[in-house]
Amino acid sequence: MIFTDKSKGLQQSLDQESLLHQMINQIRRSLDLQEILTTTVSQVRLFLGADRVKIYRFDTDGSGEVIAESIHEQRLPSLLGQRFPVGDIPQEAREMFLLVGQRSIVDVANRKIGLSPLQSKETGKRLETNIYYRQVDPCHIQYLEAMGVQSSLVVPILDCDLQEQSAKPTLWGLLVAHQSEPRKILKREIKVLQQVADQVEIAIAQSNLLTAARSKQEREATINRVNTLLHKLPTIQLQGALEEVITAFNGVGGRLYIELSQELYTWGDQPTLPYELDNNIIEQHPLWQNWMAECKQGNVWATTNLYKEPHLRVLALGFFSTPIRGLMVIPLHYREKFIGVLSIFRSEFETEILWAGRCEENRRQILPQFSFELWREQKKGQSAQWKPEDILLAQALYDHFSMAIQQQYMFKEVQTLNANLELRVQEQTYELEKSLLFTKVLKQVTEHIRGTLDLQTTLQSIVREVRALLNSDRVVIFELKSKWVIVEEINGNWQSVLGMNAPGDCFPDEFSLLYSLGRIRVINNVLTASLNDCHREFLQSLQVQATLIVPINIGIEVWGLLIAHECEAPRDWQDAEIDLLQQLGDQAAIAIQQAQLYEQTCNAETEARNQAAQLEHTLHELQETQTKLIHTEKMSGLGQLVAGVAHEINNPINFIYGNLCHASDYTEQLLEILRLYQLHYPHPHSEIKAAIQAMDFEFLVEDLPKIITSMQVGSDRIRSIVLSLRSFSRLDEAENKCVDLHEGIDNTLLILQHRLKGNGEFPPIEVIKDYGNIPQVECYAGQMNQVFMNIFSNAIDALEIGNGNERDKENAQYFGFSQYKYPMPTIHISTRVSADDSRLLIRINDNGSGMTEEVKKRIFDPFYTTKPVGKGTGLGLAISYQIIVEKHGGIMECISEVGKGTEFWIEIPVKPPAKIDR
User: Fold this and answer.
1) At a CB cut-off of 8 Å and minimum separation 6, what does 157 contact?
2) How many CA atoms lie within 13 A of 69 on its CB side?
3) Which of 178, 389, 467, 542 is most exposed, with minimal Cβ within 10 Å?
4) How many angstroms separate the most distant Cα atoms in the chain?
5) Would you give the DSSP letter of residue 448?
6) Which long-range contacts (CB under 8 A, 24 or more apart) does 137-141 make?
7) Which residues pair with 64 in a beta bridge?
8) What is the mean pLDDT of residues 38-48?
9) Residues near 676 by beta carbon (within 8 Å), at least 6 away in sequence
10) Whose CA is closest to 171, among 246, 229, 245, 118?
11) Is the peptide bond before 234 cis (omega within 30 degrees of 0)?
12) What is the pLDDT of residues 708-719, one digit of tens each?
């Protein structure tokens, strides 16, 4: 490989900055080391244009593994996941990688290796990027050629402990770039790769810190869990603590032996000593006890292979039938006194290392495979190493277990010496705890009543707390008004009495009077209590053997009863239990009163809302009725006016139109006679000749037919306008019928023709028709024409305002926009039929200034208008919406945005599904 110091220009500088920037961002963004390494090899390969870039990591035994790789178009075989033996990289090379950070460049073609140390071996100072060459080991060249590599660049990656400033760095791995062809390397490229390696070292240090923090966190969490179990009242949970410890150490079994009481707690796989030994319990064997006697306080002993320990040769016989291989022993002491031992077992497992060269059937991998004596190595009877953090955790657990066992022993000793005193203390403590518990439950129920107004939830909470506190079989609340059990809480398989109705004959009316006076009924035994036969049979039918009843009084009236049932056996109800039940009965009365007041408030609120909704509905109906009345009156007046005007114009125009054809014939005949006179009398009298010259006879003869033709065109135009007025009014077509809507649109545009024409203030409006092939539609033609009239009129208003018509500037507030200028005002009309030929779509849009969102939301509201007084009624679009939606069962929508025009979307069925209401 030939080394060069030539720069490749600005692009390479930018690539370098981009690579480093992406590396730094990746380290900041991710805590996943594998993700960072994968990104690193990919970016470095792109930067160098290499065929393969990989990261090689050293294991603790000196062997290595490729853990990240990026290959360009499979030019070189993949080495990802393959392992390499210790001898693959010589020891002296490793030392140079570590001591001086040496970078190596192998030029296979020239059989040379370039060495570039990062720092001076003598002074330790950082050096400039220089390189010197020497001949490379032929074995190394052969090794690279076998894999198809022609040039190689290696940069070491070190691992520094950020927590220990004095700690020396270790060789973590290598950043390697391979080329299948000879390649020149720039100094700056080595610098960049060194900077990348520095960033990787930072990522590794961060990953180590994260791993250490997580390990510490897991260790502390384990200690907390074990500590909670060891100090859990009233009984120390040694079994649970043992299981938690075994799980934390990833063990398959373990045991806790307490010397003081000779108790043994076990979990998981366990050794079994042969019967010929003195004792079947391994901790009681003399060899084990002698070993424990020699152990110093606080020491933790661990091994990955118990069969190799000399002092366990005899005891190891008990482990032959188990998969146990690893063993950790934690002797427990209290003030230098041996009190027990905690043992953790780990299972054995087999390991297999597949060395590089076995994965692919590739000719380029054959020679590397032959370079190893073994490509497949199997190890049996292995066990996971006990890590330093495992020892730290064991030492921390030593104190907790020792303290807990000693406390348990002292506790039992005190119990033995003061049995009677402890019994009395327990009784008093029980009473005190029970009293405190009663107070706590009473407080909880009180807070629950204050926190909710749901009566059912509160009552259910009361019976649930009472049943648990009294430890009774059933607690119910009985409502006297309905004579039903409305809530209950049951413990066990006793029958439910929820919704059960008590027999009236068994409970006379004087019972209610007694309960209203505060009577509490205590029945310790149903069979021996003073009850009438009906009452006793009723209780026995409910499986009740003892019961406690307190009233729930609201004022001077009894609302219900709070009842506790004992179904298993008779029971002597204590005074504290009776007092508690009575207090909870009072709390239930408070909850019921609150719920009743809340219900009354809700009913009043609901009634007020219903009245408001009814008034709103009435107002809406009144507005609709007023709209319909105005619409009917307006349509009636407009129809009569249009019909009258059309009728009055139609008579004279028919007279004129009918006589124009005769006048045209007469004129032609007279002109023909004049031509004959000119033909036969070419020399007229001088007076006639003078008259002909005076009147410009030739022009008269030429222009007179044109006048007649113009009159004909004008009369045709007037007749078409009259027909349009009659068609628009549709007074003769008030019923629903099939019509051509294109004709209605054209007639409406014809009526508005005078507004579409331009003038000095306003340019003409261009109407673009995009008519589809639509069928005749069954509808109210006159009302549909009114919809078209309203939409076209609003579009013309919007276009006039947008183009600065002084006459309509005052109407700009109606559309909610400022004045816009448009070069060509346009109205676009489009008609289409749906794919299933069932509905007709009409789209009418203009390129005016559009509407604001606030105006668009209310344009279909009746009487809503922002025009000045006298300019609009606010009914046009409301009536149009009513015609389309209610009369024809269609859809009418407005799409508008300020500065982008307005579009009305009308969709009506071709044939209505039912008869259209007028």
Assistant:
1) 55, 171, 172, 173, 174, 175, 197, 200, 201, 204
2) 19
3) 389
4) 173
5) H
6) 138/111, 140/106, 140/113, 141/106, 141/108, 141/111
7) 58, 84
8) 87
9) none
10) 118
11) yes
12) 777 776 776 676
For residue range 574-583, list pLDDT tens digits in order: 887 888 788 8
Q: Which two tokens stand for residue 515?
A: 């309960």
Closest CA to 255 of 340, 326, 336, 334: 340
How many angstroms from the chain centroid is the CA of residue 725? 61
SS3 letters across 275-328: CCCCCCCHHHCHHHHHHHHHCCCCCCEEECCHHHCHHHCCHHHHHCCCCEEEEE
Does position 5 have pLDDT exceeding 50, yes or no? no
467 phi/psi in degrees, rounded to 5: -65, -45
CA 536 to chain centre: 61
Q: How far is CA 551 from CA 109, 438, 526, 529, 595, in A?
A: 105, 19, 19, 19, 18
Task: Provide the residue type at 837 as one letter.
Answer: D
Collect all residues with Cβ–Cβ distance below 8 Å to 266 and sequence separation of at least 6. 242, 253, 254, 255, 256
Q: Which of 279, 264, 291, 289 has its CA nearest to residue 318?
A: 279
CA atoms of 242 and 230, how far apart (whole Å): 10
Strand partners, 107: 112, 151
Residue 61: φ, ψ to 5°: -85, 5
The answer to whether 115 touches 100, Cβ cutoff 8 Å, is no
pLDDT at 463: 84
Q: Report the distance separating Cα 300 and Cα 342, nearest Å.
A: 10
CA 32/CA 625 separation, integer angstroms = 72
Q: How far is CA 608 from CA 28, 333, 612, 616, in A?
A: 61, 78, 6, 12
pLDDT of 110 > 50? The answer is yes
Sequential DSSP letters for 600-661: HHHHHHHHHHHHHHHHHHHHHHHHHHHHHHHHHHHHHHHHHHHHHHHHHHHHHHHHHHHHHH
In one letter, which amino acid is 142? Q
Q: Cβ(468)–Cβ(479) under 8 Å?
A: no
Contact 819, 850 (CB under 8 A): no
- Nearest CA to 890 out of 823, 834, 818 is that of 834
Residues in the chain: 918
- Spatial CB neighbours of 495, under 8 Å, sequence gap ≥ 6: 542, 543
Q: Residues 6 or more apart from 444 whose CB is under 8 A from it?
A: 465
Q: Cα Rg for the chain, rounded, in angstroms?
A: 52
- The C-alpha angle with vertex 845 and arms to 839 and 850, in degrees rounded to 5, equals 130
Taking the whole predicted model, whether its pTM rises above 0.70 is answered as no
φ/ψ of 351, rounded to 5, equals -120, 150
DSSP secondary structure letters along 677-731: HHHH--S--HHHHHHHHHHTHHHHHHHHHHHHHHHHHHHHHHHHHHHHHHHHH-T
List pLDDT tens digits, range 603-616. Answer: 888 888 888 888 88
Note the pLDDT tens digit of each residue in 194-252.
Answer: 888 888 888 888 888 888 888 888 878 888 888 888 877 567 788 888 898 898 888 99
Amino acid (one-letter) located at 482? S
